[in-house]
Write a structure and sequence with these properties.
The complex is a heterodimer of chains A (412) and B (94). Chain A has 412 residues and is an all-alpha fold. Chain A has helices spanning 13-16, 19-36, 40-59, 63-72, 77-100, 120-136, 140-149, 152-178, 188-192, 195-217, 236-249, 256-273, 280-292, 321-339, 351-370, 376-380, 388-410. In chain A, α7 (140-149) runs antiparallel to α8 (152-178). The longest helix of chain A has 27 residues, at 152-178. Chain A is globular and about 65 Å long. The two termini of chain A are 36 Å apart. The model of chain A is unreliable at 1-5 (pLDDT under 50). Chain B has 94 residues and is α+β, with helices and mostly antiparallel strands. Chain B has helices spanning 12-23, 39-49, 77-93, and strands spanning 2-4, 30-34, 52-58, 64-70. Chain B has a four-stranded mixed beta sheet, covered by helices on one side. In chain B, a hairpin with a 5-residue loop joins β3 (52-58) and β4 (64-70). Classes of the chains: A mainly alpha (412), B alpha+beta (94). At the A-B interface, α4 of A face α1, α2 and α3 of B.
């Protein structure tokens, strides 16, 4: 689109001083300083959440879309990017785990990584979550970043997610007594006699999946990744800086693979501090805290102190690493969409979309409690933790997404 | 014919465009109004698969009008894809 540009007027104050980025940056730092008062980790997880949100918004890394587009459109670009991210995270995680537990042969898994029990709840949770994320048009993290971008339907999905966690927290004891309690948290390094074998098997599994996705895609014409526009020549450091800024915040966004790798790096940092990325624990905790005002709290969940994964933790605490991540995610996505000029309140015109979002959210909220995590906590953080649960959950997600796609094909 | 999918996000703009193109009388054009940036590549691609050529015009802040018209002869899909990706990159830049 070669449009002749009119002669540039003298730059106004607004153009010379980047007010918007400075204000947003200052707000993020201010909240960080406040949260830091409650503990270094909580402040740090706020920043991790902000990075999480920026990455998701800039690269449009949508986990629901990864499964859905593969099934619906034969488009595996997102799914392949996530596989790359999983491989990068696995390498980082294994280094950290080897420091936390040098002798995996003893069978005692380190406490931070997401090594959940594998059972019926994992499968049921994965299927329900898969259906829900396709119906709602985004998983839990996807709904959070689109909330920050101004999608009204995502706010409705979040209301559904909150309701789903409330219901599931009340039924948790049943799931725990009948399934979760009996199950083993299978940790590959303990089963395979060491980290090298576990990492090799994980990477081989991811590579095999990558090739399978390429084969699946080859059956329909494939949409290429959009190449970034070539940079204009830069004169001097100001131009260089401006171009760098444009690369990060410009309208073209980041590639899916850039986003997935960045997310993996952030998750490795998070595990280095305490726990890998997880979203739903924070949502569940806040929902329960509000119920606590009416003496209807259901937390802490029975037996959860012994479980790994994205658990809400104890009741009556507002600021934990999980809630800080959740808040940071929305703030980061909002910041990124403001800086790239993409923030806008967007309302679907069809009422049925709100119903879909609410129902899908409800399923996701419920599923994320019984499976101890969402696409992030029980999948993107679990496979790199060298846990079998991540694989089982991922396969179940795929099955659920398949059902979800069949459903949305029949919807108006 | 006009299809207003403002407020809809993936995959609905592309799904609805495909459905509308299926019902479109031969030789007619379809105009899709969207405010979802990813639709700038997914909708033209659905069109290209059904042999429609597309042009995109901005229609207000963060809103675009995608015009799909039947191509003369058979579209080269590979070329169409290259064109779609180049244009979507240009549009989202400006």
């Amino acid at each position: 689109m070669a449009v002749a540009e009119p002669a540039a007027p003298a730059p106004s104050l607004r153009e010379r001083v980047p007010i918007k980025p400075l204000a947003l940056g200052a707000a993020i730092v201010a909240v960080w300083l406040l949260l830091d008062q409650r503990g270094f980790a909580i402040g740090a997880f706020w920043l991790i959440g902000v990075a999480f949100g920026v990455i998701l918004q800039r690269s449009r890394l949508c986990f629901a879309g990864a499964f859905r587009d593969l099934i619906l459109l034969g488009d595996g670009r997102l799914f392949r990017a996530i596989l790359i991210g999983l491989a990068v995270a696995a390498v980082g995680f294994v280094l950290l785990e080897a420091r936390l537990a040098p002798n995996p042969g003893f069978g005692i898994a380190p406490a931070g990584p997401h090594i959940q029990p594998v059972g019926i709840a994992t499968v049921v949770g994965g299927v329900l979550f898969g259906v829900g994320m396709v119906l709602a048009g985004g998983c839990v993290s996807g709904s959070l970043w689109r909330m920050g971008e101004g999608y009204v339907a995502s706010w409705v999905a979040m209301a559904g997610i909150v309701a789903g966690t409330i219901v599931a927290n009340r039924q948790w004891a049943w799931w725990y007594d009948n399934d979760i309690r009996e199950r083993t948290a299978v940790w590959l390094p303990a089963e395979l006699g060491g980290y090298p074998a576990a990492l090799a098997l994980t990477l081989a599994g991811l590579a095999a999946l990558y090739i399978a996705v390429l084969w699946w895609e080859s059956r329909t014409p494939k949409m290429p990744e959009f190449p970034a526009p070539p940079p204009e020549p830069a004169f001097g450091w100001r131009d260089q800086l401006r171009q760098g800024w444009e690369k990060v915040w410009g309208g073209h966004g980041w590639s899916y693979a850039t986003g997935a790798i960045a997310l993996a790096v952030v998750s490795v940092f998070a595990l280095g501090l305490q726990v890998p990325l997880g979203v739903t624990g924070g949502i569940s905790l806040w929902a329960d805290n509000v119920l606590g005002w009416f003496n209807a709290s259901a937390l802490p969940l029975k037996g959860s102190e012994l479980l790994a994964g994205c658990t809400p933790g104890g009741a009556e605490k507002w600021f934990t690493v999980r809630t800080a991540t959740m808040l940071g995610l929305v703030a980061g996505a909002f910041t990124a969409s403001m800086l790239s000029g993409e923030f806008r309140i967007r309302r679907p015109r069809q009422w049925s979309r709100y119903v879909q979002a609410g129902a899908g959210g409800l399923l996701m909220g419920y599923a994320s409690v019984i499976a101890i995590g969402c696409t992030i906590g029980a999948f993107f953080s679990s496979i790199p933790s060298l846990a079998l649960a991540g694989w089982v959950y991922g396969i179940a997600l795929f099955g659920g997404a398949w059902i979800g796609v069949a459903l949305i094909r029949r919807l108006p | 014919m006009e299809l207003d999918v403002r407020g809809e996000m993936c995959p609905y703009p592309a799904m609805k465009a495909r459905e509308a193109l299926g019902k479109l009388p031969a030789g007619e054009c379809l105009e899709v109004l969207t405010d979802h940036a990813p639709a700038l590549s997914t909708v033209p691609w659905e069109g290209a698969k059904l042999n429609y050529r597309s042009t995109i015009e901005p229609a207000g802040r963060g809103t675009w009008r995608i015009r799909l018209e039947p191509a003369e002869g058979k579209l080269d899909q590979k070329q169409a894809l290259a064109e779609i990706s180049r244009r979507a990159a240009e549009l989202s830049k400006g």
